[in-house]
Design a protein that fits this description.
Layout: H1 3-10, H2 24-32, H3 36-57, H4 59-68, H5 89-94, E1 110-115, E2 125-129, H6 130-146, E3 155-159, E4 178-181, E5 196-200, H7 205-215, E6 219-223, H8 224-235, E7 245-249, H9 255-265, E8 269-275, E9 279-284, E10 291-293, E11 298-303, E12 315-322, E13 333-340, E14 354-355, E15 358-361, H10 362-365, H11 372-384, H12 388-391, E16 394-401, E17 407-413, H13 419-432, E18 440-444, E19 459-461
Parallel strand pairs: 3-5, 3-6, 6-7, 7-8, 16-19, 17-18
Antiparallel strand pairs: 1-2, 4-5, 8-9, 9-10, 10-14, 11-12, 12-13, 13-15, 16-17
Helix pairs in contact: 1-2, 2-6, 3-4, 7-8, 8-9, 11-13
Amino acid sequence: MAYEDELKEQKRWRLLARWSHVPWFDDSVRREFLPPVEQRALQGDALRRMALFAARHVPHYREVFARLGLSPVKMSDPSALASLPVLQRSDIGARPERFRPDGMPEGFAVTHSATTSGSTGQPVKVYKTQVQKVQWAKFKQREYRWFRFNPLGTLGAIRDPEDLPELPDGKDVPDDGVCEKPAWPNIGGYFETGPFVGCSVLCPISRQADWLSEHRPDYLVAQASVLEHLAFECESRPAVPGVQALLAISQELTPSMREHVERVFRAPVHQNYGLNEMGLVASRCPEGGKYHVHAESSIVEIVDDQGHPCRPGERGRILVTAITNPAMPLFRYDSGDIAECTEEPCPCGRTLPSFGAILGRYRRMAFLPPGTVPRFMRVHRALSTLPRQTVGHIRQYQLHQFQDGSFELRVVAAEGLTPAFEAHMEQAWHDASDPSCPPLRIVRVDGIPLPLSGKFENFTSDFFPPRDT
């Protein structure tokens, strides 16, 4: 893909009159195709500026640089980050005030904050500036352009009510509610767009499917698990709404989940990677399947358990450094996620730094007994490939691992579980397990409650570590 082709695609996005003079979005296209050495140099410049600021104004980093005898001036290349310790969420939670600066650079002011969900530990509040709001819009438009969304189409989203736009009276969308807006959230503040429709994720799956059939958005954004549940629901209906593309957010989308959703909706599923603490970090390339990092704001490292860089092809933990947020600088922040390290050029021609497939949460997987993940993946695969006559009544599922090593498959179904379904799952379990593994218990339940984070979990385990306190 050539730079000129992407500029042509950018022209489909028409800036509102009040923003027609800004070069941000065209510059965004140019940044995607710079020579790799120039990409690295620009990241290095931003890193050095942030290191200088943090070493002077942020108590935590003032102490770290002094203790290690490091000069922030020498932090002029992303590789220099390896000299700093890995930052854990618990480090921030223990002394959050030590990560706040004693002053702000000229032209910067704290404008908002973001709080982590707490799905992997103690919630953390991170303060941000207006720059982060602009970058969020810029990077969202960039990924929508990559995904070839038509800005004049209808964008739909199934989200937590507090993540949906407010109603006309200024109130939040109710738990069982929906909303409509004349323009896409965030993006519509800069570009001419089609309408937006939203539905609360707390609505029953059948209601979500009804909403989808009624509004028929061209593009649908939802958590990966929500898309999977919708696929189960819509597969039992006579006609699937004509969604042109889907975007899975907030959760891992396994290959079998992708295959299932794309088969039911007959549309591609796109992905991105973000952290509440950092914003939108990377977006998955439709051509190459790698995650291209939004290098203007983040540096991503894939490291081993000792914090050393992984080699291409190896799997490691994702560390993210924010290079544009002086309101709360974070260096080498451990996301808790695992991804593949890659270095080969992407067939799309973009030169932004990249990493490979996201493989799950390190913080949880590290505590599971050997053989657990293959068993779950086999169950997951079996559920995603159920024969149509068997899958028609399945709506949700959750596999739970007990402390004694046994497993229970909890299934929400519109009708009773059929012998064919149970035989299909038992065979998959047998194929994935050694003879010493106890049989899989299959139970039908009326519902599966959401955790406090609001993110549905299709696998839970008594071996997961307790939340940080």
